[in-house]
Amino acid sequence: MSIKYFVLSPEYGFRGWKLLPYAVQNLYSAQTEFFDKHVWELISKCDGNTQVDTDKLSSEDYNRYLLWSRGGLIIECDKGTELYPEQEYRFYHSRFKQNVHWSITGKCNYRCKHCFMSAPQGVQGEPSWDQLMTMLDAFERCGIKEVTLTGGEPLIRKDFWQLVDAILDRKMVIGMIFTNGHLVNDIFFEELDKREINPSMQFSFDGVGYHDWLRGIPGAEDRVYEAWKGCRERDHRVFAAMTLFKDNRDSIRDTVLTLSSMGVESLKICNAYPQGEWLNYKDHYLTHAEVYETFLEYIPHFIEDGKPMTLNLEGFFNYDKSKDRIFTFSDKWAPEEEFGRVLMCGHVRRDIYVSPLGSVLPCMSMVGTPIEDKFPNMLTVPLEDILGNSSLYMDIVNLKVSDFMEHNPECSVCEYKNMCCGGCRAIALQKYPDDYLAPDPVLCEYFKGGWRDRRDSLLACLQVH
């Protein structure tokens, strides 16, 4: 007989949520691994006191212990080795969420002409410190491990570093900060260093030579260059997002080459949608056909330039530099017989967005739309109830492709239904603000307008895959 004792490695804890009661979570990151009941019975024996008779294990279960041990998830120990208190099993009375994308203010120090939440006007306001703590305590009670800080411009809050400390005190992780970069300076980096944290940074950047105009602040472009330089010197991962409009559509090549030379890891380019402040600038709009034409014109330059960085052209064309792989987000592909179990949005299953007003939304781009008021507010309804009971938010979380097809019979007979799967709810709501099961007009243009086929033909001619 071979009796052994194991204990969970100190950086992990036993966790569980509604519908997902068996999990082990990294206490210093958002990494969470879920198990079925049988495997949970095996891993839960790693408490330092429960004996494991390896001779009686099946070969498959024996190999599980070997893999866990070699991977650092568990440690062989003496009997009586105790778990630390934070490693003990905790059950959260809500659905699992890995990350909260949290707008800690609706105000901004820039005057962005395309701001969908009208931050230059402060339409969403700014939550008080007590309201922030109410929300943060709720995130902790629901077992949310990772926080992404955004706004408005999050760094303008005078209590920003107090909030950072409050997050860290709760053993939560700040995974990323979204910023315009104006306040990313030596003082900012010194404060990060004091706390020994290294969050990724996502900056807004709207094209070489065009950034100042869209952001409404002279010198904004030079300031973001300085912020990138500081990040590169301190080994922060840097990402960027570019808003496309009529004036800057020819600047993509110069922008990609400039950003890649400055250490920016990836760039996401999306069309500016008619929402918020952008409703005042209709002469600068691009149709989505024009957006796709712009992308098709640029892709050969990207290949010619050696694919210098990770690039996302709004799901139309995506390149992952770390894997040297081209793929698309727009082509989902699901067999019709699986529509009853395929979810419409994987993002909303994993993450939540919370607005400055406390609205719990599936997506940040729903801020300021007519449907926002229909979603629950976590300052008046406990987040556990929002994430655990029936609400408009959970309705969208649980939406399946079959629900969409039933609501849209014309889509159920479309030749592209298996690739489209209904598209994006946030984009659909921009055209159909009272119907969160409406078709996605952008994907309709993508497939029915022949843009998918034109892209594939282009890539074939360029001999890239």
How is this structure best described in words?
There is one protein chain. By secondary structure, this protein is of the alpha/beta class. The chain folds into 3 domains: 3-92; 99-303, Aldolase class I (TIM Barrel, Alpha-Beta Barrel), CATH 3.20.20; 336-343 and 399-465, no CATH class. It is 34% helix and 19% strand. The protein contains 18 helices and 18 strands. The strands form 3 sheets. It has an 11-stranded mixed beta sheet. Strands 4-3-2-7 form a 4-stranded mixed beta sheet, with no helix packed on it. α9 packs parallel to α18 (451-462). The N and C termini lie far apart (55 Å).
CATH top level of the largest domain is Alpha Beta
- Principal-axes shape call: globular
Order the strands across the largest sheet as they lie in space: 16-15-14-13-12-11-10-9-8-17-18
- Rounded to an integer in angstroms, the radius of gyration calculated over CA atoms is 24 Å
pLDDT average, as an integer? 95
Q: How many structural domains can be distinguished in the coordinates?
A: 3
Helix fraction bin: 25-40%
Number of helices: 18
Strand proportion:
15-25%
Distance between the termini: 55 Å
Largest sheet: 11 strands, mixed
Low-confidence stretches: none
* β-strand number: 18
Question: CATH architecture of the largest domain, please?
Answer: Alpha-Beta Barrel
CATH fold description of the largest domain: TIM Barrel
